[in-house]
Structure formats: structure tokens, C-alpha cells
TrEMBL record, chains A, B, C, D:
Presence of the UniProt keyword Transferase in the record: yes
Protein name in the entry: alanine--glyoxylate transaminase
Listed GO MF terms: alanine-glyoxylate transaminase activity; L-serine-pyruvate transaminase activity
Top enzyme class: transferase
N6-(pyridoxal phosphate)lysine modifications at: K156
Cofactor: pyridoxal 5'-phosphate
CDD domains: AGAT_like
InterPro entries reported for this sequence: Aminotrans_V_dom, Aminotrans_V_PyrdxlP_BS, PyrdxlP-dep_Trfase, PyrdxlP-dep_Trfase_major, PyrdxlP-dep_Trfase_small, SP_NH2Trfase/AEP_transaminase
Organism name: Vitis rotundifolia
Pfam families: Aminotran_5
């Protein structure tokens, strides 16, 4: 257990991972306080509940947050980013913060495009990415996209229990941590780095059981192959969207370019309360759907499709959604979503390598 | 762990359970050797692979087996039983052996009817029942139906690992064990009974971990309620049969009265090899279907639906079967089986009590 | 899982527990940042490595720390505390911070005496206690001793994996949290309190597996009885000290009043390097002893005796220590420590209630 | 899981292992019924409770058992064996049955000597060995000693849960199974062999969880090294005997040549009831000792020292025994047994390879 786990999942060779006994919220805090100082201007995109929470944290931690808001269901507005970056000749913007995949609305942002904008204007802002519901499930390339801090949590695509925040810092981010003035102790990378040098790795007692879990999770992921894992999520996402379409319902995500392969937020007709759908799914069918949060409360329900999940499990879930839709009075054609999904999947599921 | 577990699942108050570290095959042997003597005449029904194996055991253990064979897909021929019992004024028939649910063909026999025949002729034959794929899933009433030995295994409806054969003996069976001349030691009830009296319960080291498992399994079953568990299986069985019908395929079970609620054997068209279906399901969809065995090899595949299984898991399985059927060239309408099943289930699934 | 776990272990009826997905270090941070503002004067006792680390945190989080240092092996100097409190008529001291049990030196501080001092001078300072290696093992009385924030971690006397910081706040501490100006987000009690009101309990994903573990750990503790658990630790501590004495070695703890019942730091003769003892114990005997830390590095090794540990396990450990001592050239009389411990234990171990 | 596990632990290259979902008692039955016919003469040694139980089985299964009895505490009387073998020119003796290690008295028989006797007279009797409490703990060499059937159980030196009988048959035993007339079905090797040829390995559902356990147990054993495992048991056995001697108590085993390295039966003075020792150990110290059985009931208690057990665990156990001895009024010098054991162990425990 002596080497630090996790670098591979970020597709980085130069990054330094920190495995912190915390959650995604703590990982956010680690990313911000280690690289920035109070009052620093940061650009941050508000596109749904989880980006909103991160922005709330950014504000409460004392940063000067320049919020770029989009309608919920849309991706980050990169045109506005480009304008701000272009205008910022004085480099007052210290960081750009973006959620790769907004779990509340099922929107995946275009991380490569953010990098292109920063590069176009040779802007030195740090590039901080919340990859909680993307890393190990969606295409993520830390080095190629010049991400400075990427982070995820143990309980998402790694399919472990909650309790480990996994943060990866670029050399530039580590450099920034030397002068960052934000008050921090539990989340301070410098303490970790000190112990890395000593070869003992943790400045305080780590979550040993989650480190063993991490080792096992990485074995499972790399046995399938990280790229195959990503393809599987792509397949499950597409299948889910085909089902939604077959049901005659709308995806909360407004454009195909933003479609998320890890979660689909489904808009219900105005005469239905999506909360009722989530409740019934849980109480009658033992099916755990996601609530609509905040602005989309009552309006959407969410189907999660990330982690150690296979095609038949998804189809069982879709069949369950159909029953709930019927229960709440939506005129769904039973089997229609499953058929749309399975017709697509039947042609695309690869053989399981160990069983060929 | 001091009281003997398991009586409740047989619906008996007078039976004596034996929890033997063995499998269903050993439980069969226990039932026969403790109650019968070599050369004893027994009537036994051959209706599929598992009844055939039991008959093989009966013969090799030295009994005089009067085999009543049915076409595979049919239930036990009780008319012939009635004739034999009627004719046996001398009571040369020492036992009637029947498999409650033939797992190979998905046929459930009518146990109450067997008892009626024996009663009608006041015939004293012992009544031995293999309940491996029925007890805790199908309606089973040891006392009411006058069953003398009932048996099951830990790995079926109890959803435990394999390794415990659970045998329940009526007072009449215990009485028979006193004079039964079959050679036995490991399976000898008398050793168990001796230790029951001592309060130490096992004549040799028991499978302690499976006793803990049994306690947990019974808690799960009785929390749901044994009768609700049976209703759930009834629902899952019906849903599966509706799917098979929607696919335009035939149930191997020839008459509704014999339909099994724990396993469905599906007949494939002659131009398809059912073995191919089972292989593909495993290799591509991670779906474990049952092969056609012996006389129905290549002709049927089997869908198991017993144990700790819920409606959405079954629907996921049915969706998987549809994909495999398509793979092997059967002109299935995608979603058709799932729709047939879910249309039925949507009206019939009860709320989960703990979540109301 | 709906009610908040853990109040009972603090012996409080008015406290509010927070179960935070973090470690003891994070629990410290939670206690400080929720109750204090940057620049606040706090009195803190430096008596060993863990109190030193907490003081380091206190300083780095921006508090004005009035350090009361004792020689390592002594308890908190309460005379100096009394002087400071007496002198502080202006109530510039906002909090007194103390480690109940200093794990590095095996010193248990007198918490009741601290409260008496504060009461004597009617001083309103908050009373913050690190109970990481004491709560659920040593006598701890939050309400009786007027502790304002008490904290522990899942991996100590609760015998769970690392990953949950358990913090309990008095009404006065909660009141303080309303005006505390320290920057905080992940550790902010107010977010927890908001969700407590909503009945959903966590402002972010909790460590669900540790909540299940906590439930099980509390069941184990309350089945034995919290006071019996404390008595057991008292017995194990005494037995260990008797062994140390029999070996002719000195306890790092300088006075009986400070003896710790959860860890014993043993001073080795100058010609022995205690690090060698710890290494050999691990490499040859599969025995995990604690290193001497910082000022006592090389000079002491530590025997932990807290949590789900029984008398024979401790005696096995003591026998192992004897072998290591012999290995490194200390002239120990083999069996002497074990005999001293077991002679005492033999008279004092109670019957196991469930086995009487 | 496709290849058959276990051959290595018997030190055989030509043997065929059978992993049967049963216990040691079933493994005995498998060994006898597959190689012998009713009425066959066998020589069997009665030296304690477990050999007595096997002989009881041999008789009840219909064999003509020529019992060679020794006083309990002595090993098998090989002089009488030699006489019988010498006298049996007609080869009426079909098998010699011996318990390698008699668990009731802590006696290890000399298996090589039995082979020498058979060889000296070129006697073709099968050589059947119960290795339940020896294989994977004591030196056992199936091929070298010409053992025809060797057997053990999962719950002994393999440290797994109960439920798997592991039987290994020599080519000669397999040959014998072709003509053996004993009635058998569940335990019939021929059914296993048929499925071995098919590559599916089990004639009925196996204990899948124990097969996974077996794989893990073998990994643990071969990581330590089978010969190192045997040396460890030798060390633990010697240490235990030194403790017994230091207590002034007698080993039930009468001669050093028979000393068992997996269990030590300790004789108590006449004024003490050993049952009381076992009860108190369990009720007060959570220590599980073995009762004296049958002829030695009340006279001996047993200390087991086999399986996944290390030196400190044994020393903790010995310390516990000392406390119980004191409890029941035996004038034990506290620490004396532990000191005797640890003085020996301290010089002999090797470094743990992975930690060097």
C-alpha cells in the first residue's frame, strides 16, 4: 500500500494525487484553499445544484466569485468565459472553476474548450475541475486538457463507500499552494507532501479500509480497461436517452453536446410532480431515483447510470421507471423505453473478455 | 443458536428438522435411508432431470423403484398412482417419492392430490417430497398434506450459499427410522436425535456459518412474511410466463395446473439451439440462464425466479433474454416480453411495508 | 438510521452530535472553527505529540494560543491554568483546549478539575476537549463536567475503521457557533443543523457504511454496558502497568494520577533504542506497538489497550513485549510481566453475562 | 475455479482429490464406502474418541473391523499390526485404517512405520488415513508413505468454515473403487470422476463459497510455505508442552514420539474436574478449550494449536489457562507456563518474510 494510488484515473503523469478522508465537498475545499487566497477573483459556472453548492462554498471561503449562470439544463456558457478571459489583460482572474458533469441536470461540460479559451488568450488562471460524477466514467484527460486540480469521490464511479476525496494537483497547482493564503489545516497539501517525502504518506490516520477498497476498485476498473469503462457509460447513457425519448419525455439537458453519460434528468409533464415518482419508485419498486433539486424540484427526476453497473441492471431500472410513470398517470406505453434501449444495446454490448 | 431452526418453513408443528452439512442430493439420501430398507418397493415419478437423478439414487441405494414416467413437461401422472395404490391391497408400496417442483421442466406437482389418493385407499405408504426448488417459494404445507419427509437445500429459496440440506421428518417417518435397515452413518437421524436430547444438537461439527446464515435468511423471510414471499414468487412466475407468451414462445410445461412459480423452461423453435442462448446470455450479458438438460437439451432454456429476487431484477433479466433471442436470430419484438410482464406487475406489486 | 447516533457515549442529554466524514484532525478543526474567531485567545496544554499537533492547528487556523507546556510525561499544568483564569478578569480567554488522554505519553488529564477552576472564577471560556483516545474507554462526563465541545474518532474505542469524526456540542457551543467568524464550510455545524431540521441529517453524502458500523459498535458497547467497558479499560491499564513494573521499566507517565487506561508509554533504558523494539515486534512477532514520538522518540514505546480488546489478548501482547525486550538485550525475566498482570486480572475479570 | 484444488497439501502427484460438501465424518464415509465391500476385514486402531467414532462408523457400515486398542494417551499399537499383517498370508485384511492425529488425546501416530510394516510383508491392504487434525499442520506425505486415501476437513488446519470434506485417493484406491460393493451415492467417487472428465467437476451443486475460501486458504498457506506452516505448528506444540511441564501437569500423551503439534491434552490432578476448567475458561476468559471426551472426561482438558494461529495468540491462551487453573484451586505459579513457552519461542520464531 506504499505507493500513492490513483494517478492513472486522471490520465496524468505529472499530477500529484491526495487521498483525503473526506467527501467531495471536502475535496472541493482542498482544491480551493490550497491554490487560492481570500479575495482572489475566480470565474465559476452556475448550471445546477452542485455547481451552486460549490459556488456557495467558494463565496463562504472568501473568494471573489464571478458567477457565470446558465439556465438549468444548459452547459457552462463558454462565450461569456471567453469574453471575461479576453478582457482580463491584468490577469485578475486567478482560477476558473467548473463542474465537469452537473449531477442535478445531467449536463456534461466541454473541458477541452475551456482549455482552448485559456490558451488562446495565454491566460494563466488555474483550471479547477469537479470531476465527482465524471472521473472513471466519462472521458477525462488531466494532462491533455491542462487541468490544474481535478477531484472526485470514492462513492461515484469508483463504486466504493463514501469517505475518500481524491484530489489531483498539477505542478502549477502545487506551486500555487506555496503562496496560497487561505487558512487550512486538515486539507493542507503541504502536510501531505511532507509525509510523502518521509514515505509514510499521511499526516494523520487515513481511511485504511478505503485504501484497500481503492486498490480493489482500480483492479476492477483496469481489468475492464478504463477506456472500456468509459465506452460502457457512453452506451448506458445513450440507452437511457433513447428510453426517455420513447416515453415521449424530455431530457432536462437542452442540447446533445451536453448530454451526460452518467446521469439523465428527465422532465415530467406539468401535471405530474416528479417527487411523487421518486417516492413511489422507492416505496413500491425498491428503485432509487434522484429527486429534482432546487430550481427543478418537482419538475425532473433523475436516473443515475454510473459505476459498477451493467446493461441488464439499467434495463431493469428503465422497466421500473415505466411502471412508476404508469402509476402516476403518465400515458406511457409499457415496454417502449426498454425496447428502445435494448434495441440499441443488443447491437453494441461487447463480449465479456474473461468469458470468450 | 440452541433451538433447532427451520420448522416454520415447512408449515409443520409436529415435524423434526435436521440441518445436515450436505446438499440436496445428500438430503435425498437422508430421506430414503432413514425410512426405508433395501428392496422396499417405492413409487417414484420421472418427469424431468432432477426426478430422474433421484430415481437413479433410489435404485443405486437398493430400493425396488416402481417408476411412473411422464412426458417431460407434464406433471406426475397421478392416475397411475391411484391405480397402483388401489391395487396394492397388500401394502407392498412402502413410500411414494415425488419432486414438488421439477427444476428441469418447470413443473409443479399437486402434492395435496397425492395425499388425497393415499387417504382414499387408506394406504400407509410414507410420503417423501423433494422440495428443493419449492420450499420457501411455493405453497407447501407439510402437516396439512401429510408429508412424511420434506427436504430442501440452503442455496435455493433461502438464498444462502450451498452446503446445508434441510430435512424435516414427520412422527411417522421418525418411527420408520427405527426399523429402517438401510446402511447409513453420516446421514443417520438417530445420531442427531441422540444429540438433540443432550441439547448439543449435532453428532459432528456443523456448518456454523450456514447456521448463522439460516438465522439471517429466516429473519429476512419472516420479515417479508412467508405467505408474502410465496405471493411474490407467484407474481414473478406469472410475469415470466406472460413474457414468454408475448415472445411467441412455448412454455415447456404443458398445462397451466403445473406451471412453476420458481422456474420457467422456455421451448425454442427447432432452428435454434437453446445451448447457444445460454452461452450468449452468459458471455455477453452477464446473465445466467439454465441449460436444457438431458431429453430437452438444446430445446429449452430456463429462467430461474426464486429466492431473494425482486420485480425489477426479473424485468432486467427478461430484457436480457430478448436481446439474446434477437442475437440468435429469433424474430422477437424488442420490449414485448418486458411490457407484458410489467403491465401485469404494475398493478400487482405491493408497497414495501418498511417504506410506507 | 434517522435519529442521530452517539449522544450516549458522551454522557450528555443536552449536547448535539455531529458525525462528520473525517478523522480526529478534522474533528479538532470542526471544534475550533465553529466556536472561535481568528485572533481569539485560547489556553491550550502542550504535554505530548498529539496536544502539540492540535496546538499547531490552533495556531495555523489563526488563534492566539496561550500555550501551557508541561514536561512530556506530566499532565496539564492546572496551577498555571488557575493563575491565568484568575488573572483574566476581562475574559480575554475565549476557550480552554485540552486533550483528555495524550496518546503519545499515556497521560490522562483531570477534566473535572479544569471545570472546577473555570467555575471557581465564573469564567465563561468555552471548554473544548479532545477525547479521541478516551471516549468510550475512560470515564467521560460531558454534562457533569460542563464540556462544551467533545470529540472522538471512529477508529479508537469504537473499534471501527477510520473515517468518522464524532463531535458533540453543548448548547453554549452551538450558541457560540452563531457568531464565530472562522472561515469554514465542510466542517460548518450550521449546515448540519439546517439538515437536522429537515430530517435529512447531512448537508452532503455521509459515510453510510460507517453509520451502519457506528450502529453496530454502539450495540456492542451498550450490550457490555458503557460503565463495564470503562471498568474493563481500567483493568487492562492497571494490568499493563503492573507488567511494566515487573519488568523493572518505568512508565513515561510521571504520576499515578495521570496514568492512562488506554495506552501505556514505557521508558526504555538509555542503552536501548525503543524504535528497534517497535520494529522487531512488528517484523518478528506480528505485534503492533507504538513508536516514541518527537521528544520521546527512541526513548519510549507504547502499548495500546483500548477498544474491543480482552484480557487474554493483552496478555499475549505482554508476552510478546517480553520476547522483544529479550531480543534487544534487556535483561527481562521471562513471564514476569505476564505473571504480574495475570495475578491481578485473575481476581478481577467478571463473568461474561451472556455465558453465565 | 476450473482445476481441482488441493492436491499439493497431501504431498502427492498421483492422487485424485475430491472436494465434497460434507464434514470429516462424511469424508470418512467416502473413504470407506468407495474402497471396500460389506464384510471386508479391516484393521483399525482405537486410541481415543475420534478413532472410536470412526470405528463405530466402520462397524455400522458393515465392515468386519479388527480393532487394535491402546490405552488412551498411547499411539497405535504397531507391534500388533505387524503381527496381524505377518499372520495374514491370505490377505484377508483389505484395509488398515488409522487416525494420523487423535484429537481427543493429542496423539500423533507414526504413518511411515505403518507403511514399513505393510511393505515388509508385501501386504496389499489399502492404507486409509484420517488426517483431519494433521494435514496442513503436521508433516504428511501421501506418496512417500504410500497412503491410499487421505482426508481432512475445511475447518481444521485450513482455517475455513466447516462444510468441505477433502479426500484424496491414490491410483490404487481409485482402482479399488471400481469393484467396491458398498452402497453409496452422495459420496460416490465415480460420479465425481465422470464429471471431472466432462470438465464440470461436480455431480451436484458444490459449496461454491468454500471453494473460494479454499483458494484463499491455500494462497495463505503457500505464501507462508507449507513446510514453514508445519514448522510453526511444531514450534507451537513444543511451546505448549513446555508450559504444561512448567505448570507441573502431565501431558495425556504418554510418550514423546506421539506428542501432537496440533493439540495438547493436559491431565488434571484427581481433585479437579477438567470440565470445570473448560467451563470457566469460556465463561470468564472467552477462551475456548476442549473438553475431555469419553474415557478421559473430567480428567483432561485440551489446548488446540492448529491453523491460522501465531505465537502471541498461543501465549495469550496459555496465560488464560494459568488464570483458570488458579481459579479452580490448582497451585499454579502465575506466568510459569508462559515463561517456559516464551523462553523457547523467543529463540525460534523466524522473521515474517514480507516484513524483513
Amino acid at each position: 500500500m506504499v505507493r500513492i494510488l490513483g494517478k492513472e484515473i486522471f490520465k496524468t503523469t505529472t499530477g500529484t494525487p491526495f487521498l483525503i478522508p473526506t467527501t467531495g465537498t471536502g475535496a472541493w475545499e482542498s482544491a480551493l484553499t490550497n491554490t487560492l487566497s481570500p479575495g482572489d477573483r475566480i470565474v465559476s459556472f452556475l448550471i445546477g445544484q452542485f455547481s451552486l453548492l460549490w459556488i456557495d462554498q467558494q463565496k463562504r471561503l472568501g473568494f471573489n466569485v464571478d458567477v457565470v449562470e446558465s439556465e438549468w439544463g444548459q452547459g457552462a456558457n463558454l462565450e461569456i468565459l471567453a469574453e471575461k478571459i479576453a478582457a482580463d489583460r491584468a490577469h485578475t482572474i486567478k482560477a476558473v472553476c467548473i463542474v465537469h458533469n452537473e449531477t442535478a441536470t445531467g449536463v456534461t461540460n466541454n473541458l477541452a474548450a475551456v482549455r482552448r479559451i485559456l490558451d488562446e488568450y495565454r491566460h494563466p488562471a488555474l483550471y479547477l475541475v469537479d470531476g465527482v460524477s465524471s472521473i472513471c466514467a466519462l472521458d477525462f484527460r488531466m494532462d491533455e486538457w491542462g487541468v490544474d486540480v481535478a477531484l472526485t469521490g470514492s462513492q461515484k464511479a469508483l463504486s466504493l463507500p463514501t469517505g475518500m476525496g481524491i484530489v489531483c494537483a498539477s505542478p502549477k497547482a502545487l506551486e500555487a499552494s506555496k503562496s496560497a493564503q487561505s487558512v487550512r489545516f486538515f486539507f493542507d497539501w503541504n502536510d501531505y507532501l511532507k509525509f510523502y517525502k518521509l514515505g509514510t504518506f499521511w499526516p494523520y490516520t487515513p481511511s485504511v479500509q478505503l485504501l484497500h477498497g481503492m486498490r480493489a476498485a482500480l483492479d476492477v476498473i483496469f481489468e475492464e480497461g478504463l477506456d472500456h469503462v468509459i465506452e460502457r457509460h457512453s452506451r448506458l447513457g445513450k440507452a437511457t436517452r433513447l428510453a426517455v425519448e420513447a416515453w415521449g419525455l424530455k431530457n432536462c439537458t437542452q442540447r446533445e453536446e451536453w448530454f451526460s453519460d452518467t446521469v439523465t434528468a428527465v422532465v415530467v409533464p406539468p401535471y405530474i410532480d416528479s417527487t411523487e415518482i421518486v417516492k413511489r419508485a422507492w416505496k413500491r419498486y425498491n428503485l432509487s431515483l434522484g429527486l429534482g433539486l432546487n430550481k427543478v424540484a418537482g419538475k425532473v427526476f433523475r436516473i443515475g447510470h454510473l459505476g459498477h453497473l451493467n446493461d441488464l441492471q439499467l434495463l431493469g431500472c428503465l422497466a421500473g421507471v415505466e411502471m412508476v410513470l404508469k402509476d402516476v398517470g403518465y400515458p406511457v406505453k409499457m415496454g417502449s423505453g426498454v425496447a428502445a434501449a435494448s434495441s440499441y444495446l443488443q447491437n453494441t454490448i461487447p463480449l465479456i473478455p474473461l468469458r470468450i
